[in-house]
Amino acid sequence: MKSAVVYKVTTVACVIAVIVVVACNRELDKTNPNSPTVNNYFKNSNELLGGTNAIYSIFHSASLIGREWFFLHDTRTDDVSAGGGQLEVPRAQLLNGATTASNAVLNSVWNGLYTVIHRSNTVIDNAPQVTDNAALRDRCVAEAKFFRGWAYFELVSLWGPVPLYTKQVTTPDQFQPRAAADAVYNQIFQDLKDAAAGLEQVATDKGRASKGAANAVLGRAYMQKGDYANAKTALLAVNPGNSVYKLMDNYFDNFDEEHEFNAESIFEAVFFDRGDNNFNWGYTGDDQPNAQPQSTVRNQEYSPIAWRNLIPSNRLLNEFENTATGAAKTDPRFGLSVYQTGDKYNNNANTLTDAEQNGNSSVVNGVTKKISWRKFMLIYKDNSGFRPGGINQRIIRYAEVLLMLAECENELGSPAAAVGYLNQVRARASVNMPAYPTAQYPVTTKEQVTKAIMHEKTAELGGEEVRNRDLLRWRKKGYLGVPDPISYYKARDEFLPIPQAEIDNNPKLEAGGIPKQNTGY
């Protein structure tokens, strides 16, 4: 059951999203009991919990996981191609490498992430005055540190050096300069360690951050920094004794509505089917004090029978093992990740046609056909066109942890251990692919194991907002080869441009010696 208490927007979201400007007129200085300020709020644990819930609110808003976050990550990879004819200019810019500093998608994600950080800082800074329930207070602080660490990892891995705020902003002049990436990563490591120390291994209240989630993000961050030893330590702590998480037998259980919070899910953003076709397009988690639970528009954007803005790329589709290309078995994850013309949907009541899938075709093993995403799409049980959905976005699942551990072991000189992790993922009951080594994927050398890891991450995690950072990491290590998988890639594309609004509004942006804008923009 989804935990509505985490996501109900309260007036506290408004409290910590704005800076109160004191008016000169004495009459206007009177406190309005219906509009609390930070100074007269956060007096007890329930109010601190409200502030913590406001972090979750922006996390799943349209600025982040509800819409723009998945677009930003997906369009920076070779997992996707343009699908239908309704891909707006900012998204097309990202997909084609023509991104500008005024791009609306990257601006939305930047602002959303810094709102997460501001709200997290507000909870952390005001927690010491709360004394009525120490356990709840400390949990709120741990959740706030988890989100601050998560948000800074998103920022530093997408933009490089970014302003580092670790205290609640209370006046309009408290701007911060861009901090070196090392400083940002050090903050991430400390926040996530603190969060892991203060959270339950698996959250009792479904949808909240957990020790497992904190250690998984910590492992991601260490890997991105190239510290595979510490990454391995963090990732092993996700599932101590292999007793907390496990792979689901049915691969598709990770993408439907009926199996949310399953044994494989480490952290997910919670969404609700509101029973209508309305979506809060500009929702930022603070504009409607009594807002209804939030849905996600991912289904509408990617669904075969909706806008179909992004479709699986030919590169991704042809990566799956197939008997037509000499594999011993066709990987079942292909059919569980995508729909193609002729597939059944809507509980097998309908058959998908070319006409229903507007836009471009794909080429798989030399055959041209219409193919669309199945992951997180509602049409497995529904035949609606326009339909915002309530399927939770799985942010981290245990299969990814196993594949990250495989990469760690391979980089640390233990390729046999790496292959063991790969084979765990392939042995899932509904997948049951032949164990490595295979004829197509020998695993005798480090280079061969690296190739198997890269293949397995596509087959298992394609379209799940993981590959963007994989490409950045593997490119630095020389694993991607020539030509680069991203056709337009040049040096500047390692990072996104700093939003123009940040350059215009932050007078201290380059005060630390780092230029206002990333090179090449």
Gist?
The chain has 521 residues and is mainly alpha-helical. The chain has 18 helices and twelve strands.
3D architecture notes:
The protein has a domain at 4-290: Serine Threonine Protein Phosphatase 5, Tetratricopeptide repeat (Alpha Horseshoe), CATH 1.25.40. The chain is mainly alpha-helical. It has a two-stranded antiparallel ribbon. Strands 2-3 form a two-stranded antiparallel sheet. Strand 9 (362-364) and strand 10 form a beta hairpin. It has helices spanning 4-7, 11-15, 45-59, 68-74, 89-96, 104-126, 134-159, 181-198, 211-225, 228-236, 298-302, 314-317, 333-337, 398-411, 415-426, 446-461, 467-476, 500-505, and strands at 80-82, 162-163, 178-179, 265-269, 310-312, 338-340, 344-345, 350-351, 362-364, 367-369, 371-373, 393-397.
Key attributes of the depicted protein:
521 residues, mainly alpha, Serine Threonine Protein Phosphatase 5, Tetratricopeptide repeat, two-stranded antiparallel ribbon, globular
Structural class of the helix and strand makeup? mainly alpha
Mean pLDDT: 92
Helical run tally: 18
Assembly form of the protein: single chain
Q: For the record, what CATH class of the domain at 4-290 applies?
A: Mainly Alpha
